[in-house]
Write a structure and sequence with these properties.
It is a single chain. This protein has 179 residues and is mostly helical. The chain has one domain. It is built from eight helices and no strands. Helix 6 packs antiparallel against helix 7. It is globular and about 55 Å long. Keywords: Membrane, Transmembrane, Transmembrane helix. This is Membrane protein. InterPro entries: Uncharacterised_HI1736/YgjV, YgjV.
Length: 179
């Protein structure tokens, strides 16, 4: 069966899968970090690979949402808590979805984009990671729709890594209440 599966795969599909596995490695490195700044920088690199993955697999809403994710990460680092910037990105997310919408199977990518924007602009630490955990669930659904094998694994691992990092942050807070 694997031989047939690979024989039927197009070069474009194979490149999409390679991009998703590159993103997988970067996501693991980012979410293992307890440093929010380092997390955001690594997420930008990982999401660049995801933009390519979704474009190669023909999932245009997910690709557009992920492109906005990169912009969001850049802006959130400098404008955290800035409501006008956050609302502008939320509107950009909705507009991009309107232009690339192919059907209700695109809804998980839109939801993930909206949740991630709110998370990055309003939260830190544990709460940030819970919101990103929820967004990752919707990205899992988007990857299922696109058929991105590495993307499914990547987002499932992002969810697990978020849970582990939440546990680590809680443990640190219990050991050092002043943090």
């Amino acid at each position: 069966m694997p031989e047939t599966f690979l024989n039927d795969a197009t070069p474009r599909w194979l490149l999409g899968q390679i991009a998703s596995f590159i993103a997988l490695g970067l996501f693991i490195a980012g979410f293992a970090s307890k440093d929010d700044r380092k997390l955001l920088l690594i997420l930008m690199a990982a999401n660049t690979a995801v933009v390519a993955q979704f474009a190669l697999l023909g999932s245009w809403v997910a690709s557009a949402m992920t492109g906005i994710v990169i912009l969001r990460i850049l802006l959130a680092r400098h404008y955290h808590g800035n409501y006008p910037v956050m609302i502008s990105l939320l509107l950009l997310t909705i507009i991009a979805a309107c232009f690339t919408w192919q059907g209700w199977s695109d809804a998980p990518a839109l939801i993930a984009g909206l949740l991630g924007t709110i998370a990055m602009f309003l939260f830190h630490g544990i709460v940030l990671r819970w919101w990103l955990f929820t967004a990752a669930f919707f990205w899992v659904l988007s990857n299922l729709v696109a058929g991105a094998i590495g993307g499914i694994i990547a987002e499932a691992l992002v969810m697990i890594m978020n849970l582990v990092t939440i546990w680590r942050l809680r443990k640190d807070a219990q050991q050092h209440p002043s943090l």
